[in-house]
Amino acid sequence: MTVFETAERRRVGDARPVITELIDGTTVQSIAEEAWISLVGEEEVLVPLPAELPADVLSSWVDVVGPWTGSVVLTAGRQTAEELTRALLRESAPEVLEEEDVVDAFGEIANVVGGSVKAALPGQSALSLPSVGTSPEVRNTADVCRIDLTWRGEPVSISVQGALPALPVPHDPHP
Amino acid sequence: MRALVIDDSRAMRRIVSSILIGLGYEVRDAGHGGEALDVLNEGWVPDLATIDWNMPVMDGLQFVSAVRSNPAWRSMTMMMVTSESEHTQIVRALAAGAHEYVIKPFTADAIRDKLALLGLLPQEVVL
User: Fold this and answer.
1) pLDDT of A7 over the 90 cut
2) Which domain holds residue A21?
3) Could you tell me if the ipTM is greater than 0.90?
4) Domain region containing B115
5) Nearest to A127 among B11, B83, B106 (CB)
6) Tens digits of per-residue pLDDT, A56-85?
7) In chain A, how many domains are there?
8) What total of structural domains would you count in chain B?
């Protein structure tokens, strides 16, 4: 698990929480494991072992809008995304996967993980439809909870990341 | 028995359909609430509809409300199958007229157990 902490971290009294105050990596991992067992297969294990993502990656994500606003982003190598799609579709997977199949299945995994993350956050939030492509940029490195895992020996990362830039640090007139 | 599987994810439609076919259902599917209403308007009214919440065009809650407003479709049992898992959302869906609620991720056993509670398991698979 990697939780980014920087000097941009909000100060006590600011109204906007950062994700690390609301959810931890252990919870995100537990959510991911449950989704994997249900969607990918009972025998499929996510191992909490970080590995470097390949150059050719695909991300899927859902946006959460509420007291905390950001995205739940699933990222894996494109080959891994295809394997996940086959595992998800099981016997109904076509012999040759189309891009649309991968986008749909990979997006649905982000949707299920994102829905559970949203439920773990305080207050009422809304969930977007899933998107698939290049991951949204990290706007505030203090507002990220990321876990790095491996599935079938291949790296998979899940990043719960804020959509808003860090709050400015007010100037103290009496230092 | 007939089931209509409504979900914007093709993968999820395949998963739910596969479970229901395994239980003996005749299954059709739809990618959103509007498509599902088209199926009902054709006269193909199922015993069960499984309904995702977040979908383009017409979401699951709008579909439930539309079905509830038509007395001809009153016999249909509606089961939300969705990643919306907060208590307030469950209450909203049940208040709108859904009969049951399954949270994603789910297992085949969870679907089967819910159908057993609803008395909607085809005879040959009733324990």
Assistant:
1) no
2) 2-162
3) no
4) 2-125
5) B83
6) 999 999 999 999 999 999 999 999 999 999
7) 1
8) 1
Which chain B residues touch A124 with a CB distance below 8 Å?
86, 88
What's the mean per-residue pLDDT of chain B?
93
Which one, of A22, A67, A127, A70, lies nearest residue B103 by Cα?
A127
Using an 8 Å CB-CB cutoff, list chain B residues near A128. Answer: 54
Measured between CA atoms, the residue of chain A closest to residue B110 is: A38
User: Is residue A171 assigned to a domain?
Assistant: no
Q: Which two tokens stand for residue A5?
A: 């902490």
Q: Domain containing A51 — which CATH number?
A: 3.40.1550.10
Residues contacting B74, CB < 8 A, separation 6+: B68
Please judge whether A101 and B82 are an interchain contact, meaning their C-beta atoms are less than 8 angstroms apart.
no
**Alpha-helix residue ranges (DSSP H) falling in A22-91:** 25-35, 78-89
Residue B83 sits in a domain of what CATH number? 3.40.50.2300
For residue B122, what pLDDT is reported? 82
Sign of CA dihedral B121, B60, A27, A1: positive
pLDDT in tens, A138-154: 999 999 999 999 999 99
Highest mean pLDDT, choosing among A90-94, B63-67, B120-124: B63-67
Nearest CA in chain B to A39: B105
